[in-house]
Amino acid sequence: MRSPRSRVSFCATLLLAASHLGSSLTVPQVFKNTNLLRTIDASKGYVKETIAVIIENTSDKPQTEYYLPFSVPGSSAVSYVECKDKKEGTPCNAEAVDDSSDFPLKYYKITLPATLQPKGQVTLSISAGITGALEPIPAIIGQGDKQFLSYTGDRYAPSPYLTEKQKTKFRAANGEIPDYTDFGAKDVEKTGFTLTYGPYDNVKPWKSEPKPESLTVRFEFTMPVIYMEKLERDIEISHWGNNLATEERYWMTNNGAKLKDQFSRVAWATSSYYNPPTAAIKSLLFPLRGGSKDAYFTDEVGNVSTSRFRSDTREAVLDIKPRFPVFGGWNYSFVVGWNNDLPGYLRRGKGDEYILKVPLLQGPSQSTSYGEVEVTIILPEGATDIKYLAPITIGKEERFLHKTFMDTLGRTSVRLTINNVVDDLKNKDIIVTYNYSASAAFRKPLVVLVSVFSLYVISALLARIDLSIGK
Amino acid sequence: MAPAQASFFKDPASTQNIRGILRVVILLTIAAASISSRLFSVIRFESIIHEFDPWFNFRATKYLVKHGFFEFWNWFDDRTWYPLGRVTGGTLYPGLMVTSGAIWHALRMISLPVDIRNICVLLAPGFSGLTAFATYLFTKEMKDSSAGLLAAAFMGIAPGYISRSVAGSYDNEAIAIFLLMFTFYLWIKAAKLGSAMWGGLCALFYFYMVSAWGGYVFITNLIPLHVFVLILMGRYSGRIYVAYSSWYALGTLASMQVPFVGFLPVRTSEHMAPLGIFGLIQLVAFVDYLRGHVSSKQFNTLLRAIVVVITIVSFSGLVLLTVTNVIAPWSGRFYSLWDTAYAKIHIPIIASVSEHQPTAWPSFFFDLNFLIWLFPAGVYLCFRQLRDEHVFVIVYSVMASYFSGVMVRLMLTLTPIVCVSAAMTVSSILDAYLELDTPEEPDEAEIKKAKKSKDASVTATGGFLSSKAPYIGIYSITSKVSVIASFSVYLVLFVLHCTWVTSNAYSSPSVVLASRMPDGSQHIIDDFREAYYWLRKNTAEDAKVMSWWDYGYQIGGMADRTTLVDNNTWNNTHIATVGKAMASGEAVSYEILRKHEVDYVLIIFGGLLGYSGDDINKFLWMVRIAEGVWPNEVQERKFFTARGEYKIDADATDTMKNSLMYKMSYYNYQSLFPPGQATDRVRGAKLPAEGPVLNTLDEAFTTENWIVRIYKVKDLDTFGRDHFSARAFESGKKKARKTGLGNRATGKKGRRNVRV
Model's pTM, two decimal places? Predict the structure, then answer.
């Protein structure tokens, strides 16, 4: 008898062996891309690649699985892949293929929303967030200099299928694009913020040999490249306090071009009069849900007084200013937190069941990418049967008891770790269901009552003891 | 009805419970008042550790909580006093940290995981409530519980004590004043009862005090002094003997367990008084014992012989021990208590601390308000009764009054006794004037009778002065009302004054500065934390930061970087080295910086904002301390102009202008202003048009209001040049290029002109 776990590892070994033998993932040639439009949006400090493609089933059998690779050279990585039927709007499932033999390609297996009959066509819209694909060039700039980012990718959209017609649009942050690869012969056209490559006819399936042609674009990026190395986000529920407390701890760096000389306060003070765009992080704006209250902004040395918070029932904004402008390569870590009334987020289900719906990620409105996100949901003491439905794949899940104020057992908590996140995920909700009985709810007041009462009894007894020797 | 009620109130037996409850309620209210009046800074700013020393205590507490007690005991801190390091575990008073650590653990045990920072911030207010309670107990022993309650209330809100115990001022004094009062209470109790148990308890709290504050020496000397005075007054008794012997033996042994104290109690002059008194009291006890067994004539000869022999033996022994250096002579700090000019001449580092200056007279009124003029009256009342414990109050008053006049910070030890004495006065006045019934006019005969019986009782108890006290009552309602009303006004004014002083003078964290915006809203100037946090986040983990010693603890606590010197001024030479680096020219300084592997230099500059506590104003102390070690290389005279003025403008001396401190302070400052307009707002001086040039340092970070400026020490030049020629070369090149550009620009212009 083999346990399922050993079977998994056995399969993994097989797969590893297969990749070492050189026999890479074989994609059955059952589709062709009739028309493909690739949009590379680099206006946010990370790359958002959207592929709109009409695919046709060229085999004689109905098909459901379509493969699509994304090119992730160097330290770049795919953060998420989303897919939908463009006409119907129905979402389809995209799943990473555990195979790295075709490096730098990362394959995704897309399950079509409906089985595609032979000769049938469907239009898919697949978008992916790719982090680490932009690099500041020059890597070191002066305090007042312009910052440029550079993107390097493939000239043709990689695909394991034949593509009859394709076009690539590159979207820069603004119109200033000093360098870009020009393949000649009216191959590329620049209009405003956008570069359009193509159209190209009959592009053959992607092969690592000969080396595919690459395109490089260097464009001006007037915003900072905000990267949160780590985010710890705690969501704590209190039934008694009728409160949903959120605390977020950020470790931030600016991944933009590094500062050439040292920081000059004179230059910074004089330039701040006319408020030019800068590659330094001056402030962060956290859009919060309506009704948020008691916001705070602190860091390791205490409260930071440079924050503004306004809130009404419809929306709330927390505007924070780090202690110092965070230039390229500089770090800053901070904590923000706020409270919400619980009824807006918690609903009672059948019996003792409760359903909680909270955003998985909030975070600044400026485009941001995250290295590691740890979301901890702290449920009341005594909550059981926790189930959750996350909007994206969760890297690691951990369940533990979080012991804090006046807990006897500790509060039931779930920690979800997600790596490599971009802020397209913002404001997507996670749904958590749990059981919480009335007896568990009354545990805390009872414990407090009993302990205070016993304290009285003990002190009363002690006061009555006479320790004197003789009268 | 009315008489029944009156008798109900007066009958002590029937009101005992009510009085007890009332006392508890009043004490709790006093504790609440004293805690809440210390929270101004938390409400106005935040829960933050204040000033300088508390930052070290906070850092040490965090270390204790993180690594446990034994690690803390053996803590060698390599992040301070680079490259020497500091045996921190053995050179601090651990009482404060251990107290907060214990509270932290205790709260965790009952599942209240409070952040250690909040415990540290709120420790001083919490203990102030206990101090009020200890003062109550102490005063109760002196007079009665109503005086005790008044003393507790005074102690709770007296600014003299608040100055050292607001929330966030996490310093040794925070718990030490409570321990001081409680030890004294236990001592009085022990001396009154002659109980070894109370003596032992007194020793226990004395040990706690020793572990918490260097000011324990005050107790060490005051209790023997009390005993000595009692012996001189011929009031030796078995009670005193038991109390003192048990306190001294247990307390001294216990105090020696604190590593920082170690063998000091038997080896230094400061601790010789209790030892001497211990010997003396044995002698007196022995003589007392002999007196009971030998006839009086023999006794007198014997006594004389014993006293002469023992005095000669012990004194010569003491001299011998001092000469052979077994007993350390008086320390400099001690001398400065007797001669206020001593420190200025011999130990500038002590004199450079503002709290070591002699007290200005208004500060007595500022810190104690109406208590200060009630204080002598209270001492007088002690003379009237003059029981053993009253002698203690008198001795304490005399000593503390003297010391508080010598050093500002010792106002702290004066405050409790002022509160006690003033409470006794006020209570006596209220006792006399708040009596509801007008006394019946007594007959002449009755008065005589009363006088007689009183005389009898007085002679029986052996008191003096009090024999003159006839039966006195207040007959006129007017005088009752006027006295009570005026004292109510004084009390109300006292409360107002205390609140005002606390809120305005003692509640600033000094890490954060507050100012007002034009629209009246509060604006926080947070430059210190801006700079420290920048250091913490954007420099190498092991970077060494050089600054004047004032900022050492803050850099260690907030920036978490290695420092060269800090507020624990144990090594004068090292501090002088930093002073020399700041006061010398770049060539000399750079060598010092390289030798100490300094990466960053941090200075405080208030010129832009008008912040007067900056480094240029402290600069002369750096010069003086450096001069004390290198009199040939650093000379204070050279920093003054020919007319003897300390100037930073165009008239400043060359030595001043070339010193590293001057250059770092004003580097690039001129470029903030239109040409020739640069002014220093602290010193109200116009600066020379040409700013200083730095060759060996780079400006790394300057805070928003320029209060903190951080410079990076340049690496050795890549081409092996010295920094002066390298900079000259580079600036020359730059100049050439600039002029080239300029030419081109003018050329263009010229061409255009031609075209037109």
Answer: 0.88
